[in-house]
Specification:
Blueprint lengths: L1 H7 L18 E2 L27 E3 L5 H7 L6 E6 L4 H17 L4 E6 L4 H6 L4 E2 L1 E6 L2 E7 L4 H9 L5 H12 L4 H14 L4 H13 L3 H12 L6 H18 L2 H11 L4 H13 L3 H14 L4 H13 L6 H15 L1
Parallel strand pairs: 2-4, 3-4
Antiparallel strand pairs: 1-5, 3-6, 6-7
Length: 335
Amino acid sequence: MVVGLIVTISLPHHRPRPRAVHSTGPTPMNDSPLLNPSDDASASSGQAGNHDSPWIHETTAESFEQDVMVRSQQAPVVVDFWAPWCDPCRQLAPLLEKLVTEAAGRWHLVKVNIEDCQDLATAFQVESIPLLVSFLGGQPVDSVPGVPTEEQLREWLSRFVPSEVSVLMADGEELESEDPAGAAAKYREALVLEPDNAALKIHLSRAAITLGDNAGAASLIADLEQRGFLEPEAQSLKDQLDITTSASESGGVSQAREASEESPDDLDLQLKLAEALAAERQFEEAFEICLDIVARDRDGAGQRARDALVVCFGMPTANPELVSQARRKLATLLY
């Protein structure tokens, strides 16, 4: 196992050395009190033994692959090379435990006692401790020797550990198609942490439209508009809300259908019916009406119908299969 580690795991071609910015320097390996290692073993200050935290793990040469290589496929892993006799290691331990607990699973801490795992220390060319090595996707990506300050350690972790906001957003995106209410809850939780995050507001607006909360979506879009611009997705959501508002103000599907039946050649009335249908999520008929308008009039009302189709294609409640079919029909009509 360890021979394989030496072959497959290698940091960039430099050996870790102390950095001047560290408040406490690393302990050189040749300072190890190997002749009397038991003197300080009892003062390991939480380094040795079992940990209650599900995000802190002790490892050995035999379990390293599972503890680090496999685990880092799911979340970043920081390996802490330490020893019971190392004072800087004991100084660093509480800070590491504080930050990994605070992250609540966004990264894991795996501790390597070099007294018990000297082959691992050799594989990583460990010259001094403490030494932190970060892993992502089964590969080492960065290292920090010595004892950084909390600010320095947070900055280092931010390079590879996803933020709480990004995790909440990813969770929301995963939920959005099947559980829009759950997704909206994730987005709102993230907005508490970053209230000016435009991407979060767009995501929440989309979920709100799916849930039928057009007023809430409109409020979020209006807030984004105060910046003087809208991202393309935000503009698309605004257009969708405009269609819904217009349809509601015109009396909905029943009135729009009655008016279109009285004047079947009035393409603008046909378009209003299509928009009213889309607002009530009756997309199949809405698409067919718009496509018929385009077939009858390439310009004028036909152009407006094409614009309406593009807006409807982006509606989060539109059936993807129906959208694909309508896109193909529209392309056939135009080209």
